[in-house]
Design goal:
By secondary structure, this protein is mostly helical. The protein contains five helices and no strands. Helix 3 packs across helix 4. It is extended and about 70 Å long.
């Protein structure tokens, strides 16, 4: 009975980061530098990660992150995400997750798509001149 309640509670709050993802992400995070100012203690990384997950799942703006579920300020979570992105955490996490999926043979390459707008062309095509208009009649002037 208690197990069912724990699962139902976790499913109703999907932004709570469980132990397995946290153990994957924790070694990739940069070591925080020394505090330059006195004041509030640093928000734990897991708590910031839960706040980031909440924002990404709900689409809420950072400034409206609720503090009741134990999240800190939205700006704190945003700054932490920015620092992690600058440190390359997202790219390293992507590589780790791809390696795990590849090892488990769970990548379906038949569903992969390459968007040509992001793939650099090796050579330019031949120049054919200016593009022709597809309209039969000139458009009326708006002046």
């Amino acid at each position: 009975m208690l197990v069912g309640l724990a699962v139902a509670k976790r499913e109703s709050r999907p932004w709570i980061v469980s132990d397995e993802p946290c153990s994957l992400i924790k070694p990739l995070l940069p070591v925080p530098g020394p505090k330059l100012k006195h004041g509030r203690p640093r928000v734990p990384d897991r708590q910031a990660l839960c706040g980031i997950s909440f924002i990404l799942r709900t689409g809420l703006q950072w400034e409206y992150l609720p503090q009741e579920p134990g999240f800190e300020s939205g700006m704190t979570c945003w700054r932490r995400l920015e620092a992690w992105n600058e440190a390359g955490v997202r790219d390293r996490l992507h590589a780790v997750l791809l390696a795990r999926l590849r090892a488990a043979k769970q990548i379906d390459w038949s569903r992969a798509v390459i968007d040509s707008s992001h793939v650099r062309a090796a050579r330019r095509g031949p120049k054919v001149g200016p593009a022709r208009s597809t309209a039969h009649v000139r458009a009326a002037s708006t002046m």
